Amino acid sequence: MKLSKSFAALLGTLALPTAMAGVYPQCPSDVTALGTDSVDPATGLTLRTYTPPGGNRKVCLHVVAGDGWQVLGDGRQAYGFGFAAAQGVDEQVMINGTAAAKFPAPTITFMEGDEVWLSLTNVGMIHRPDLFDQHSVHWHGYPQASAIFDGVPQASATVQMGSTFTYYYKVNDPGTFMWHCHVEATEHMEMGMLGMLNVLPRQNGSARTNDGKTFTRFAYNDGDGSTGYDREFSLQMGAVDSNFHELHELVQPLPFLELKGDFTQLNGRGYPMTTLENQADMPVGPDAPALSQQLHSVLRATAGDRVLLRLTNLSVDAYYTLTAMGLPMRIVGRGAYIARGPAGDSWAHNTASVTLGGGDGVDLLIDTRGVAPGTYYLYTTNLNFLSNGANEDRGGLMTTFVLQ
Q1: pTM higher than 0.70, yes or no?
Q2: Are strands 194-200 and 108-111 parallel, antiparallel or unpaired?
Q3: Which CATH number does the domain housing residue 386 bear?
């Protein structure tokens, strides 16, 4: 029996006093008073930013953690846990965050040098009122997190249901990172509490010429323009074990030992849904109050562009290999580090495919000079991952690269 709609209706009738809401995100007063908001149109995530004279940029953002539903590649609905952009203020954050989990979590972008206040509100699991799970934010690969802000429950703060906690970060390192819940990590990550987090280098905005072309945007502080690009895309590889999610929804014992993703995905969707660029074309789960899979995976560029592809794998049980037939790929970073040794020697290299384990990420440059316009495919060479569950006819880890 599905309880979500009735519980949501009941919650919507409650008029909680502000003092009981527990939604108290922290943000410096100068950011609150003088900052400006930028909203990601794809995810609704709002960054409030302020740069004091002669200082680094300050950033405040607010996300919620709860449950929700997504649509699998065969059209079935799957229950899960996830993050979403906070909407509203005070108790409205709790109400609007109910059943609003997004798959994957909104992609977050910071700048090197930022001071960040990231507030997390735990709205609880409306479909599983028997659970009182805490949640946290773990910035995977970030080398300088204070212990209390690292998100690992054995040594860090975690967020109780109905409460809010604000994490603080001083962003000193550019690169491609990931963020996820680290409470009961295997379960919460399998259920969908994961996303990408990109940090832009200080070198951005300055001009560097490399291989006959001048760039002003870079993956890293390379000094020579070797990581420069014209367009940038983020792709998160992962999977859903539909049996695990179904048993979770039915409040049954969970088969951790048998975890095996049967619906592989890019940015939370399986092919051909990866290619639905208009959110209005994406199906919504019957129990989801709104679209939960907001991010498509189509890469678009103009012939001659150099494209940065930030690629990560946040699967809890599988390695994936991705290739791009007809497109030259060059690895320029891995694990949020530029492809250079301690002495500065470059190990950047061309490749026909890239293999990533869980928690791994790479930065790839695709140089389209000399590449004919057309539609190319990015897909896994693991043929068993090119399916949507039992449907073996085209699905899973595949999307398109459209060159005009």
Answers
A1: yes
A2: parallel
A3: 2.60.40.420
